[in-house]
Each structure stands twice: as structure tokens, then as C-alpha cells.
User: What shape does this take?
Amino acid sequence: MLLEKTLREIGDLDQTAMETAQKRLDSLIKPPGSLGILEEIAVRLAGITRNPCPQLGKKTVIIMAGDHGVVEEGVSVAPQEITVQMLPAFIAGSAGIGVLAKHAGARIVVVDVGVAAPVDIPGVLQRKVRAGTGNIAVGPAMSREEAVQALEVGIQVALDEIDSGAGLLATGDMGIGNTTPSSAILAAFGGYSAEEVAGRGTLVNDQVMKVKIDVINRALETNKPDREDGLDVLSKVGGLEIAGLAGVMLGAASRRVPVLIDGFITTAAALVACKIQPKAREYIIASHLSGEQGHRLMLEQLGLTPVVHLNMRLGEGAGAALTMHLIEASTKIIHEMASFDEAGVSDLEEDKILS
Amino acid sequence: MLLEKTLREIGDLDQTAMETAQKRLDSLIKPPGSLGILEEIAVRLAGITRNPCPQLGKKTVIIMAGDHGVVEEGVSVAPQEITVQMLPAFIAGSAGIGVLAKHAGARIVVVDVGVAAPVDIPGVLQRKVRAGTGNIAVGPAMSREEAVQALEVGIQVALDEIDSGAGLLATGDMGIGNTTPSSAILAAFGGYSAEEVAGRGTLVNDQVMKVKIDVINRALETNKPDREDGLDVLSKVGGLEIAGLAGVMLGAASRRVPVLIDGFITTAAALVACKIQPKAREYIIASHLSGEQGHRLMLEQLGLTPVVHLNMRLGEGAGAALTMHLIEASTKIIHEMASFDEAGVSDLEEDKILS
Assistant: This one.
């Protein structure tokens, strides 16, 4: 089975490559550590790629699209048909992520893993596992088998991209209503109340917020997801695009390729991926901090630090695409900066430096 | 006089262009406001450039270099000669900002406005006003006339770059010891204590921190800068590169060109520029939040929000250069995204949206 094989292949970071990268960074003409998280990212990329001078190569933004039965409860300001309507704009480059992926110099791959409507759009990969999830307020989102299928869709898409030369992946989501299952996933894993994890999504008003909180409570009570079992949480209160995204992360990790998460939905997928295989966490890089209130809690659970703070709440991979430029910058620092010796710059006075 | 002429030429943002840009943004296929600060930046760029579809054109990072007499008090871990030693690496692209400016697709301009050592380095603009400031712990950094000269150096460099087609400027600093005068500037304008504004700079230890705090206190007591007079604060406790940077900001504002600030030193320069001409603030865009503790206070004083959080403390314009990609992204959103009508995407349900 592809999932099991992938999980087995996810290894540890290469400590030797990381130490070599750190040593090189410390020799460069700058106060030690003064490039902050950019240096931490560079070191992690060395560990991920087993190369002290990491080269990332081509970039791809992978967007998973799926629908959510729970929209029948009235949890979103957007009608469900928008999920399918947005897909041509992703391909054409006229949606937010289309513009930002092009700006990042990244290819965009759009996958139908669970859109409710029939999808026959040139350029969209047809990998539908089922036509939308069940309503999580009254039953499971999908069966365990379907969750595995959707995970494997994501794994395979990631592997195909990597085989085509991608060395940096970003993840994005499209699925009207998907902040509700993402909130339920956070509540299930983190033991939070519905109030703590529910956010405004696409800026729903107080009345819809009440419905949303009630729906999250009912989803947890009805389905009783087992927080120790990532697949159980995913299948009971998750989503098909969330499963596909978790698959992308696992696939990337199995091939030692860094993968950027975006906002609330992709980070919910990261929670799932890391519960299924905790080692995957080392291959996942946080991008932006979403305006959705629960996102900060998710990142805390993962122990990841977002670097872009734009108060965005779009999804689609927008923040992840914007962050690709910073990730590439971290590798260029190692490749292109000179050392104190090489540049003939005087040493700092060690006895004055904070130890 | 160039300074007076420049101050007179700084106008207000174009409200009509901003309203048109906002209307366009609200029509695009995304929940309203979901691109967060990216949209706010796009609107501001419209107001700055008087163009509802702003085009920025070429980018330049302008680095001002100067030395500080106060280093004789032992406030830095780096010997003063590093200021001049770094300049060839800026030009060659082997220093941090060299790498990051190239990555941003930006030209780099390096200006000697006050380096202590003689500077004859190919590519470095020779605009030395004096060979380093006086020691602010015992007297003024420079005369008021020298401060005006250094401001005018910055204005002229900005105007020349803009005349050559630059539509987005970033600012960077080089000057061993310059967190000390920058802290003094913040303390003077904000009425803070030396303890509140002093930071670790290039990670000085506790012993040097004590010296630094003592020096800042002495600088304020000895010079008694008038917080209502930007030129007074600048000349008494500032620096030549800080003056040059403030000049760059004023020059950019006078030509309606957006200018990115970087970390602690360039933001100190922004405090000076905005005290001299408060309208300049609208043309200044924050980039990253520095690891230097007082930076947050400076940005609060200016009412600006940093968007990149990398805990960097390099200076040189590194964070400003990294942010250029995000600024350009904001303009591409307006230019390239489709509206709901154009893309045939259903409207959101207005009655459910938070008003």
C-alpha cells in the first residue's frame, strides 16, 4: 500500500549536513545568527535535503479541492458551487493563488479530490475519491478507506511533481465550508472547546458563528474522533482536500523535499499528517500567520513559527506561495555570501558577544 | 535649498486613486479583505503613485554608510574598521544585502556619507560629509549644518535613482555602533528610558549592555535634544548614515515613490524624517520586525505594521529587500486577478457576512 510504504520511508533530518550548514553560516560576514529564522530555515533545508548547501530547484503549489456536506448547516457565506467555479481561475492565473504562484515562479497543480460537482476542466487533475464529504454534524465525513484513498491521491501527486524536478512544494486548499472541519480537527487533537477553535472564516457574522460553534460541538459529540488516531480524526471530522493535503506532506517528507503549509486548512492537514507520522513535522515549513483565530493554536501544536504576518484569510496557498521567495533566500545566503576570511573582514570581539 | 524644496513637495495621498483601488479589490474573486495587509499596501501604493493600478517599475536598495565616534566608549562587539571593510562585499554581492538585493531583482546603491576611513572603492558613491560623528556621550554627533548636508545627500541619491526609473526604494544601513544613536533617537522622541530602548545589537553581552545604557543616558543628558525638533535630535544624538537615510525617505516621498524601511537604524531614520515632515509617513512602508528590542516601539510610534517576522538583526536593508517581493505581489493582485463578474463566480451571501 502506498500510504504504508510512504510512512516507512520518512526518515530523520541529516544532522551532519545541518552541522556543516550551521558552521558555514557562522563563518559568513554578519554577526552570528543575525539572519534569524532565515538561518534556521537554511539549516533545516540542509537536514531535509542531506545537502549542507541546499539547492531546491523547481517549485510547485499543489491545490487540493473538495466539498463539505456540512455546508447544508449554513456555516459559510459562500455557496458550495464556488468550489468548482474557482478552479478555472486557478489554472488561468486570475485567482489569488494564480497570481501569487506566477509571481513566485512556481508551477500550479490543481487536483479535484472531492468536489461535489462534476469537474471536467482542462488542467485540473481528476482524482475524485467521492463527491464531497458527509455532513460531519450528523455522521462521519467519509469512511476510513476513503480517507486512505484521498491521502494516497496527495502522496502520488507530490511524488509525481518531485519526479518532474520540484524541490520545494507549497500547499493550498479550495473547499467552501472547510474552516469548520479544520476547526473540528484542531479541537479533536488539541482538546479545545468549539469556541476556542471556531473563527470567522470568510468573515461570517455572529449568527453564523453561533451555528458554526454548534456544528463543531455536534461533530465532535456525534463522531467521537480518537485523538490518538490521525486517520480516525481525518475520516470522521475532516475533509477530502484536507486528506489530500496531508498526503502531499507525507509524500514530500518521504522524498526529503520541504513543503510549505499555508493557513488554517493546510495546517489542519499538517496536524493530521504529523499524527499519522510524527517525523513528517521536520519537513513541513510554516509560512504565514492567518487571520483565522485558531491558526495560532495549530502552529503551537506543531511547534512551527510563521514568518509572514499579513492577516490574510484566503486559503488557496496564497501565504505559502508568498513565502517561497523567503525560503529560496535562505539557500542563497549559504551559496553566495562570503566568509570573514574570504572577504578580508576583521573578526568580531568574541569576549563582548553574548554567549 | 534642496531640503526645504523637498519638504514642500511632499503631498498627501491621492484619496480618489485609493478609493478606486479599494473598489477594484472588493470586486475580485476572494472574500472581501481576505488578502489582509496585502490589500492595504496595494491601496496605499495607489494613493502614493496616484494610480489605482500601481506599477512600481525598477527597484533599488540604497545603503548609507557612516561611522560613530561613540564606539570609543566600547558599545559594540565589532571594530570600527568593519564599516569600510563591508562596502566592497555590498558591491560584489557577497554580503547579506548583496545576496538579498540580487534575489529581489533590485539594484544596489552604496553611499559613503560619513565613513571614518578614506573610501575609494569602485561603485561606492563618495558623498562624505565628515569622517564619522563625534562621540555623543560627550557632545553632539554633528553640527546642524552637517545634518542638513547629510539629509541632502540622501535626498539627491533618491532623486537620482527615481530619475533612472526606480519606483520602489528600500533603505539599508552600515555603521558599526549605530544601534546606540538609534536608541538615543527613540528615547529622545518617545520619552523612553535608556533601558527601554537599548538592545543587544550584534548580541553584546551584559557588561557591554551596561556600558550602552550608560552611554545613552549620558548622550541625552549632555546634548538635551529637543524632541519637537527633528533636526536637533538628528544632529545631537544621531548619525550621518541615519541622516542620509532620512533624506532618502524624504526624497522618495517628494516624488511619490514608496520607500521600505528595514530594521532598527532605518526606522530611527524614519522617526527623524517624519518629525521633520509628518506627511512623509504615508510613503514609508514597514518591512520586517527586527530582533532588536526597541524596534517594536519605533514602529508603534510611526503607526506602521511589519509584515515579515524573521527575528533578524543584520541591518544593511536585508529585511527591506526581502519584503520587496511582497510589495510587488500586492500590485499584481490588482493587475491580474479577475472579478466575480469576469470569472463567472457566484456572489457571496451578503446577509451572512460580518458588517
